[in-house]
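tokens incoming
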């Protein structure tokens, strides 16, 4: 199916802004930085996979796996900008390990966003 361009973040300035002011969620070797905009635009994501001395083949494989996880397990709120980052040890994980880590982080994010929506609706 692929990772549609309209759902990806491409500019380094936007990625730096999200990492700088967004909320960080972490599960071992995987980090997700989240910046919630208050628009109804679709979620957009950047997947950052530095080389860390690995081959291009290994880097591209890991990046495709992470993009597939972003596509399969979306964040349940609209207007979120996210940056998925890895540590060097993430290269050693197989797809099932990545899936567990990614799903646990997305679950934390969805719980927090649901809690913030509930708090906002109570305030109104």
């Amino acid at each position: 199916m692929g990772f549609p361009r309209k759902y990806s973040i491409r500019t380094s300035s936007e990625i730096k802004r999200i990492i700088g002011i967004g909320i960080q969620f972490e599960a071992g070797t995987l980090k997700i930085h989240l910046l919630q905009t208050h628009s109804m635009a679709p979620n957009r994501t950047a997947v950052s996979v530095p080389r860390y001395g690995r081959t291009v083949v290994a880097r591209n494989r890991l990046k495709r796996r992470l993009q597939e996880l972003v596509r399969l397990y979306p964040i349940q709120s609209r207007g979120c900008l996210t940056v998925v980052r890895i540590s060097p040890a993430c290269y050693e994980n197989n797809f099932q390990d990545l899936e567990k880590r990614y799903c646990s982080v997305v679950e934390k994010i969805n719980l927090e966003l649901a809690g913030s929506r509930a708090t906002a609706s109570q305030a109104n």
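note: The beta strands are 23-27, 30-36, 44-48, 80-86.
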